[in-house]
Design goal:
Blueprint: H1 2-11, E1 20-23, E2 32-36, E3 39-42, H2 43-60, H3 64-73, H4 77-97, H5 104-118, H6 121-132, H7 139-155, H8 163-176, E4 179-180, E5 186-188, E6 193-195, E7 202-205
Antiparallel strand pairs: 1-7, 2-3, 2-4, 5-6
Helix pairs in contact: 1-7, 2-4, 4-7, 4-8, 5-6, 5-7
């Protein structure tokens, strides 16, 4: 399971901790957290994804103090979640370009194997939530992402850590013309990752438990 976990960690938002951000006006992307391939990822959609994770964390950790610690450990959840939502589309485009597809049966087979190693469905859901910030209802989507990455790498005769794989993602990022709302940073097409950007209207927030932008 360790190899699969490394792949999951690579393709979810494994981003170094950074100061929390809040924006104060001058929004060049009203209502949109990002635009990918001409399609908007709205702030509401992003917030819903974040809330799914927080609700799942609360269901697992009922003690208030422990829950507060869990939230503190995932203080960059909003930006990490957006990174994952964009990367999902970039990877899917790269897979399409390479003629790679993933079936529902392949996702279910992968899930069944991981559940055996994790001690059941709940064990796997908890592991993915705690380690990768993936809500249970998004687990199958994330497994599809892992399979697309593995099959794309195989089609290129490489692996997910090699430059050839990331070059395919770079090409897909450029095709999709990814554009992030500045409050969430910028998208580095060459590296297919979100990057924090310093802007004159953004200020750091240090209040415990605050993570959403205004």
């Amino acid at each position: 399971m360790h190899r699969r976990r490394r792949t999951a960690l690579l393709l979810t938002a494994a981003i170094a901790a950074a100061p929390l951000l809040t924006a104060c006006g001058n929004d060049a992307h009203p209502g949109a957290a990002a635009v990918v391939g001409g399609q908007r990822i709205t702030v509401a959609q992003l917030e819903n994804r974040v809330n799914e994770v927080r609700e799942a964390q609360r269901a697992v950790v009922t003690d208030d103090a422990q829950y507060a610690q869990a939230v503190a450990k995932t203080g960059t959840l909003t930006r990490d979640t957006l990174h994952g939502m964009v990367l999902d589309q970039v990877l899917h485009r790269a897979a399409q370009d390479a003629g790679v597809t993933v079936t529902r049966k392949e996702v279910q087979d992968m899930r069944s194997g991981l559940e055996e190693q994790a001690g059941g469905s709940k064990g796997l859901e908890t592991a993915w939530l705690q380690q990768y910030g993936i809500a249970p209802e998004r687990l199958d989507d994330n497994l599809r992402l892992q399979l697309e990455a593995q099959k794309l790498a195989a089609s290129l005769g490489t692996n997910t850590g090699d430059p050839a794989f990331w070059s395919a993602l770079t090409k897909a990022s450029e095709e999709l013309d990814v554009d992030l709302n500045p409050r969430y940073g910028t998208w580095d097409a060459e590296k297919s990752t979100r990057v924090d950007a310093k802007t004159p209207w953004v200020r750091e927030v240090t209040t415990a438990g605050t993570e959403q932008t205004a």
